[in-house]
Amino acid sequence: MLEFNSMLEKTLPQQTVRYLNQVFGGESVRVALSARTDQLPYFLQDTYEVLLCELLGRPITLACLKGHQPLAAHQVDQHAKRLRDLLQAPVIVALKATTPGERKQLIAHGVAFVVPDRQLFAPEIGMILTERFGAEPRREQELVSPATQALLIWFLNQHPLTETWHPFEDAAALGYAGMTATRAIRELLQFKLFELEVRGRAKYLKLNGTRRDLWERAKPHLRTPVLKTLWTYDRHILEVRGVRWAGESALARLSMLNEPQQQVLAMTAEAEQRARQTGIFFEPRTIADGIAVQVWRYEPGMQAKKITVDPLSLWLSLEVNPDDRIQMALDEIEEKFPW
Predict the structure, then answer these.
(1) In the chain, helix, strand, coil percent, each to 5?
(2) Domain 12-129 - what CATH class?
């Protein structure tokens, strides 16, 4: 076996090996020079740069896709199976990038794949990391305030056909003062999420682009709504006014995800205090068979007559969860949202 140092320039194979070493630690990947790859069928040699490797002492094959032309998931699956049969080792396909749809298809076909610095799906070697996992926390000055975030989420949930928006009425509906609405307008303009439209003495926000565009532009400036998580055995928590299903419990009700073993609820800090006053006792650490209670930075009940938190806040609360099942369900939620 040879050390993989200067054999390749900054190509996809080198980026992949560097990333796997970063994930598994040290010099976990060793690459061998072998004439066996020269004996592969020409269509595989033309499509992939194939490396025979050891990962933590275990033989694997890295198939690094050449060029930028995307392949259908079923084609990649067939190629990976052919390589596995020929080289007698598990195959990980290296890609420069994947879209959410491509990722779903690859996972559905059971294809092990890696996108350097973004994602690794290799259940056969016990490793699944998503692009959202391990992301650096956003700096406070790059984020809107919780109240501004609540108003923005309210707009997306409550104003499906509105191109201009006067936030003051919605601020009152959420229990915020006029000064909070003024600050929200300033922040939303600061991050270029809306344009200002003045009508006499009234200030309106004008939507620039589609609602989906707004959501995508806003994402880097939004945070998880979860302030802290407590746990309780007391099922009277389900009767507290304002409580909503959250986390995986909400996701199971809004997607194809299975119901989690531990139920998850959300409430405001005020609702938490009301619960304590009725005698409900909370634990600060995870407890088996208990209910996880998320205390949110803003009102989790954005949608009247709904038993779950709103889907966009739910997306933000689970954004960094490393479970690919959850990430696929979050993609489903975004696709189903009435943009």
Answers:
(1) 40, 20, 35
(2) alpha beta
